[in-house]
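Our consortium's second objective concerns turning raw sequence data into structural hypotheses that experimental partners can test. To show how far this objective has progressed, the report includes one record in full. It was chosen at random from the queue rather than selected for favorable results. The single chain below, 294 residues long, was entered without modification.
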Amino acid sequence: MSTADAAGTWKLGDVTVNRMGFGAMRITPNPDRQVAIRVLRRAVELGVNHIDTAAFYRSPGGTLGVGDGEARYANELIREALAPYPDELVITTKVGPGEDPERGFYHATTAAEFRTQVETNLRQLGLDRLDVVNLRIMKKPGADSIADRFGALADLRDAGLIRQLGVSNVRADHLDEALAIASVVCVQNSYAIDMRREEDALIRLCAERDIAYVPFFAIAGPKRESDATPEDSSAVEAIAAQHGVSPQQIRLAWTLHQGANVLAIPGTGSPAHLEENIAAGAIRLSPAELAALG
């Protein structure tokens, strides 16, 4: 059985993590909480020590727009499954998007709103300090400074509520803005073999700065939150057949091959799919195969 360390490691700021991690967005739809608990515990058993989550990952509704029954929050499921947390486990969360009883879904812009969101993550996860917090923005054309918003998170880091900072859904100029304020340990953007390949340059820029690049939707690709199987290219299908694995595993393997600083955070609510995803970290693609995949 392949484990997460087969993908290698990366130093995420001041902590080392296995490059194959786990994304918690898809653990909430099943009304049987025990399924999510099993998936999370199995992920850690398989060597996952980097989990990506958010306070707004919930069902019913939420980011995925699915599910029924009582409210289930990814952060609370993580706490139920894994607390007290292993010393080596890094939990990365994100703020910016949030939910308010009166306003509904909103995007934080003020220091008070960011503090509320950070405190919500702390409470749900049962932590005194968050390991990594990404500023997740809604990117706009043209000039859209993140300085004030990132500065608010830097202040919360200085206050001891956050250990390390990252940014999400950003351009290179956003990263430069953030780095002028505080250290950045990761950039989390949507990216896949068939989506947003202009990000290749940002991956290289991050590598030059010892910053992790953490793509989401690496498996779903253009299907994004729908989690439908993408229409894979003939090259993906052929290489998957040659390796005796699924196209989804080849997509993950390709993602990890894009740079030593690239971390994978595939998410699933299925124990079987979890093991397939972890196993993808052991797949080695040849130069010819990578060239065929583009």
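The partners drew two points from this record. The chain has a mean pLDDT of 93. DSSP finds ten helices and 13 strands in the chain. Both points have been shared with the crystallography group to help prioritize constructs.
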